[in-house]
Amino acid sequence: MDDQQQRVAEDLAGTFAGELLFDALTCLQYATDGSLYQVRPLGVACPRSREDVIQLARYAHENRIPLIARGAGTGLAGGCLGRGLVIDFSRHMREIESVDGNTVRVQPGVVRDVLNRRLREFERYFPPDPSSSAVTTIGGMLGVDAAGSHAIRVGSTRDHVLSLEVVLAEGSCIEAGLEPIVPPAPQARTGDEIESPSEYRRRDPKQALIEPLARLLRDHQGLIREYQPPLIRNVAGYHLRTVLGRDEINLPRLLTGSEGTLGLFTAATLHTSPLPAHRGVALLLFGQLEPAVRSVPVIAEQQPSACDLLDRRLLSLARETTEKFELLIPKSAEAALLVEQTGFTRQQVQDRLRMAISAARSIDPTSVVAAQAFDFDDVEFLWSLPYRVVPLLTRLKGATRPLPIVEDISIPPGSLNEFLVEAQRVFQRHQVTASLYAHAASGQIHLRPFLAPPTPATGPFLETLARDLYDVALDHGGSVSGEHGDGLARTAFLRQQYGPLYQVFTRIKQLFDPRNILNPGKIINDDPHLTIRNFRPHPLPEEAAPQLVDLQWNWSREELSQSALSCNGCGGCRSIDDGLRMCPFFRRLGSEEAAPRSKANVLRGLIDGELSPRELASDGVKRLADLCFNCKQCQLECPANVDIPHLILEARAAYVAANGLSRADWILSRAHSFGKLGARFAPFANWALQNRPVRWLLDRFLGIARERKLPRFSRRTFLRQCRRTLSDRRLLSGDPRPVVYFVDHFVNYHDPELGWALTRVLAHHGIPVFVPQQQIGSGMAMVSAGDLDAAREVAERNIRVLAEHAREGFTILCTEPAAALCLTQEYPRLLDHPDVPVVAAQVVEAGALFEQLASSGRLKNDFQPLGNMTVGYHTPCHLRALHREPGLVSVLRRVPGLHVTPIEEGCSGMAGAFGLTREHYEMSIDIGRDLIDRMRQPDLMLGATECSSCRIQMEQGTATPTLHPLKLLALAYGLMPEIRERLRPGTGTLVTT
């Protein structure tokens, strides 16, 4: 910490209950949001309550320290970036305080979709629907007056605010609502002295604002009417047009959309609405963009609840997201309109939607209705189209990418066609192409030009492009900012839009924040070139770059840079949506450092010189690395598929190279080595695993959690058992050709029965199996621990063993998803050898093989009934990371009497060695608690999963056994009747079944 940071930390110690963070890694994590900008803050404050915010404001006001409010940090304009103290309201202040009739009281950190899940219990909802509603907070929505696709019907956030609890710049706290305008009170006297304005403000802060604000608005009503005319969407500057009534001021309408420049919101009372009784959506496709745009006004006459426009690029991306969209949207479609109607009955909705479709066809008879939906799930699927594909713009590769620099223009809906024609001329003049997405009925247009990432050198070009587009928008009576705020991107253009009214904005800012400490520089700023300041820095050229420690993975500094730079900070990795598995650590902790994007920020900081390479050996990097166990779900579900897992593994490996492994990580990452010892002395080892004093010693001296159920050792390893049969090289020249089985350590040392189940089921289908004797475990535990030197040795040995078979075209089969993932995704990063991609290309996970058998009609169905049995199936994260559906589940469902129920409870929290250690045991249980609780439910007789680690967690705290699906198949085919013994409840509390 520097002297100022040290002083702030000491001054607030003991009075601020939340966290105050000043370390370099944390500051870098909060230096960016979803925009193109980067501003490193003084520090970060995570308040726990209103009292904390009051304390911060008083201290900052006294010491003239800027305060920057932040929610999820997903903004595209840089509104939550600044050089002062960033206040993260999303960390702790996320309580839904009360639900009362048609209102709800919430703290600013509540996520919009979380709120609506709660309100659904009361058949109500909070209507504004920004595209990032799965992560955006109510405080963030209040800050920018968020809207969304349905603004044409439901309005914006401002239209749903009853009152706001606001901490003012000097630390006073008021409840701001619809406030009466009363004559100014006589100035109080103290002796012979008249009360000063500052004393009056301390005594009655709300009234001290209302009277001068009312006077200011009355004096400038003409300017307000002239320069801030009605628009469906406009968040540029301060909203003044509907604030002043006859005898009252609606303070929430002014404060909403003020981007934290007038006050800090600590709670809000919001109006809620009844859930629509019925909804219907139609997807209309057009052969050209122009008739789609011309159809919007006639559809708007039918008063739709939403009408969104998507261009050809977005439709092309949509086809890539799901097979269903690929079937719905032909390649010839150049534009689409997504139209929604609501009503009291299904028939009413159908009639309204039919009229909207007829209106569109009156403009373009060739338009096609690709789909209509009236049931909830089908409606939500069609609405997922824009929410899926707009973020996917960040996935596009190449020197130019669609940049959010001018993507928030708003115009009168009737001018949509004329504006887009003129905007296209601007782009052509600047030799730029752009993607188009619009809430067309509201006149809200999102244009993203394809440009190289901005630099100081290209800044003037970007500024000119923005000015030319904004000139067109303003000529049509539009606004430079419709729903994403002004921030750093658009503040510089507010004078151009508002002319003399801008001085009224300035006086309002002075009234609320005389010392300019609340998000300074946003909305009010004298810098005409603010838009092109503070762009995210680029990687330094090789000769000027700081000397990084040797990279541990097999990639170049440029590849590392591109991987880190591909994270645009959109915040999708902060999602806690039940339908996703995005970062289990963030789900449990809710802190920014747990979000995957924080890892990209840190690596990017090392690359661009913001951080010293010495930080890689710091405890801060270890803390950050410990918030990832390589489940791969962030990469899988990130819109841009940013390779966060390998970024953080690079950081962890650098830390390990400098500081070494902990004792527990060293031991557990070498399970394949110690397994030999355990198997050799299996009777004693298995007794020891169940002996509590011995487990206490293992906990105390080796760091293996004493509460954790552990798998027993087999008396004979699988490789030893099959040496004379399955390892006979004559199998390789036989007909039919065998598959080569990569055993991995769990089957070898703990569960040989699974290996035999695989071989016998395959033999039942006429497929022989060959098992190379020289193979060892995949080394995934070493990879996840960051011990890449040791992992590299393991990989080299396995590649030597498998390469000859891969070159001859043999399938390399894995029953452990982590092993398949290691061979296909980790080995190519560990080794630079021509045999590595050859091996990776031949690796197949067992479920995929059986899926192929089923789809080709070669899967045998001669199953024996297993009785009426309900099996809870959990999909392993590493199986999902292989981009595979769980193929064995569809096969299990063919077994008579077997009822397979998917358990959709997210990540198990085990992650190999992670969940075995004392250090991480509680976190592992916390992450996997929903899965554990589901396994305890009496309706499940059995659990099933392909992952050996997940199996351990599924049996934690329950006697219900969990088996690999292949064992159930072997039993159902009548090949291994002894497996029926495994269906009985377990008896051990410290060992798995």
Structure description:
The chain is of the alpha/beta class and 993 residues long. The protein has 43 helices and 31 strands. The strands form 8 sheets. Strands 16, 17, 18, 19, 20, 21, 22 and 23 form an 8-stranded antiparallel beta sheet that branches. It is globular, with a radius of gyration of 31 Å. The protein starts with a helix and ends in a 21-residue tail after the last helix. The mean pLDDT is 93.
End-to-end Cα distance, whole Å, is 52 Å
Summed up, the helix count is 43
Low-confidence stretches: none
What do the pLDDT scores average to? 93
Question: What fraction of residues sit in β-strands?
Answer: 5-15%
Shape: globular
Could you estimate the helical fraction of the residues in percent? 40-55%
The main β sheet shows up as:
8 strands, antiparallel
Number of strands: 31
**Secondary structure category:** alpha/beta
Gyration radius, rounded: 31 Å
